[in-house]
Amino acid sequence: MAVPEAFYREAIDLNRYSNKVQFQVATQFNEVIIDVLRKIRDLEGNSPATTARLRSILAQMVDSLKGWENESAVYMIDELQNLAEFQVGFVQDQLQRVLPKGEFQVNTVAVSPDFAKSVVTRDPTALTIRLRDSDGIFKTAQFALTAKRGSDISLPNGKTVKKAFRGIADDSASRLSKAIRLGVLEGESLQKIVRRLKGPNLSFVGKPKNAIALNSALKNSEGMLLSNKQIQTVVRTTVNQVQNAASQAVYAANKNITGKYQYVATLDARTSSICQRLDGQIFKYDQGPVPPQHFNCRSTTVPVIDDDDLAKAYPDTRPSATGRVPQDTNYANWLKDNPDLQKKVLGKKKQYFNYLMSPSRGKKQLDATNALKKLSVKMDLSYHYNNLQKNILMPIKKGKSQKTITGNIRMLMNEGKSRSQAIAIALSTAGRKKTAKKRKKR
């Protein structure tokens, strides 16, 4: 069994590409906010005219953010369409290289021109991919992305990219307006409010040159940091979804070459517990989990080639944070072999992880894979809770109407809350208490 080395290299390149796209979207968002804060900074005095001008600037901010939402959706459509077409071509090329020359051709996959538009703006169940035969003719049978497959191309909370951008825009406008009004009521000068919202490291003049510089500049920004994290989450997760959907389409079209795929996580200390557990596992197509398993997921899938002669053509290694390791090394064994990283990955559970693998347990001794699996069930809950707290894509709506409360309950349950938790949070937001139903006396 072997995996072409190029698939591992491509996973690293994909992370770089994702950073480039999210940096572009975030930069456009930040330009809108910086322009608003610059105009507020230049206001002088506390006259009625100043107050009216401030209200006008805040109203213009709402319109500008709507413009950002639409422009970002168009940009994402273009980037995701190019990504899907590139990924399909890349996988087809790698599979063709596996085959002895002249034997038979890899089935190619044509991506619908509206593929990316459906991912960003519409119901993802409408997507279709069609197969071509070796003569370039479409086959009569279509490879259709069903509702189940389509759900893999919406964000983990079920929202489209455009709706997520709309939520970020609305939430940012509301949050900044409230922060400015509260600062004014507390007697802060407009200049001081602007400095606090912008942060000390972000300049009105120059722009950060890349994603790393941008994250550093926003470190202490009260008004922009959360929105930028949310943008990063939306873009990274969507790029991962489209890349994996395109790859799986080509794999499924060529089951005579590769009948199974392998789940591949990133071997470093930032990988989530669920992806740690899935790393290295092999599944039949349409019968196993596909990334992303959560927001900001960096995992991917690679085709498994069960042919000893063909496998010899590829290096039997994969990259990791500690250097190249054998290709059959999964996350658990990599972590076992790197005790210095165990504290960073497992925290206080490091000791328990090693105890589970200890020979002193006799027949109860577990190998690294099962030891990490036992730990990760509990770790999954903590990870997903923290991930949702950091990346709230659609804020809870304010209001006391039954429609608003019902919508909030549905959204919270989609994010993983139990029904009782969702009801309690939604009612608390609406300023109501959950009351027990009174039994009628007979």
Number of helices: 16
The number of E-state strands comes to: 8
| Oligomerization state | single chain
The major pleated sheet works out as:
3 strands, antiparallel
The overall average pLDDT, rounded, is 79
Form type: globular
Succession of helices and strands:
HHEHEEHHHHHEHEEHEEHHHHHH
**Helix/strand/pairing category:** mainly alpha
* Helix percentage: 55-70%
Within the largest sheet, what's the order of strands? 1-2-3
Strand coverage percent: 5-15%
Sequence stretches where pLDDT stays below 50 over 5 or more residues: 123-152, 381-394
What does the model show?
The protein is mainly α and 442 residues long. The protein folds into two domains: 5-284, no CATH class; 396-442. Helix content is 56%, strand content 7%. It contains 16 helices and eight strands. It has helices at residues 5-41, 48-98, 115-121, 147-151, 161-185, 190-198, 211-217, 225-253, 273-278, 308-311, 331-336, 339-346, 350-356, 368-390, 402-414, 419-429; strands spanning 108-111, 128-132, 138-144, 260-264, 282-284, 300-304, 317-318, 325-326. Strands 1-2-3 form a three-stranded antiparallel β-sheet. A three-stranded antiparallel β-sheet has the order 5-4-6. A hairpin with a 5-residue loop joins β2 and β3. α2 (48-98) runs parallel beside α8. The chain starts with a helix and ends in a 13-residue tail after the last helix.
